[in-house]
Amino acid sequence: MEDTPLASLSLTHVHYNPGDPISYLCAWLALVPQGLCVVYATLIWSNREIEILLMFAGQMACEALNWCLKRYIKEERPLEMHGKGYGMPSSHAQFVTFFSVTLTLFLLFRHQPHPTETHTPYSFFQRLVLSVLALVSAAAVAISRIYLSYHTPKQVMVGCAAGAVFALFWFSVTAYLRRSGWVEWALDTYIARLLRVRDLVIQEDLVDSGWARWEERRVNRQHLPGKKNA
Q: Residue 66 in contact with residue 89, Cβ under 8 Å?
């Protein structure tokens, strides 16, 4: 009986030119979507914020849309590409564009941080700078797909357009869910309360989460009787 040939897990299998530093950088940029999924999972588990849950749900819906578009259009990848699957539109470009545009919309139009005793939130200008950095980073990932010959320029442009349009659509959907009270209703359900899902990131900074309570506890410990003599 012959041994079964080994298969390659193509999730992180990226072809690049080892003699080209730019190609090497592009290979790392190709891993950004996987890295963002890790960020999503970490934030959801550690913060239980419904806004992040909604953004992740939109990200997965955007991926489903890309899967459908590829199988409907059925356009092949560039001839120089060694991988498999259809290329129109670019899933990487669509993924990072959705993320960066959604983050930009949140930072500029939905996030209204309030200052606390322990934290001064980012100003609108600082949030604008973060948004520009996110968009530039998404553009770098998209361009890297062309440089590595995984997609044609048209496939990347369509992927960016699809990601941006779906981000605008999803932001409108979540805005409606908030205005109509569906988000508040979901937060009051048994499962949401069991999992301790909350909705604080609209007005609070994730960095400041719990910090004020920690500072108060630390100050109280320092003023306990006998603490100075310990």
A: yes
Max Cα–Cα distance, the chain, nearest Å: 78
| Residue 150 lies inside a defined structural domain of this protein | yes
Structural domain contains residue 6: no
| Structure-token match 């530039």, residue found | 136
Q: How many CB atoms lie within 10 A of CB 69?
A: 19
The pTM is what? Answer: 0.83
Token pair recorded at residue 36: 């963002």
Does some domain include residue 102?
Answer: yes
Domain region containing 199: 18-222
Distance CA(118)–CA(208), nearest Å, equals 8
Q: Domain total for the chain?
A: 1
Higher pLDDT, 209 or 72: 72
Instruction: Give the Cα separation of 138 and 23 in Å (integer).
Output: 17
CA distance 32 to 28: 7
Residue 224 is given by DSSP the state S
| Structure confidence at residue 67 (pLDDT) | 92
- List beta partners, residue 49: 198
Q: Write out the E strands in 32-156.
A: none
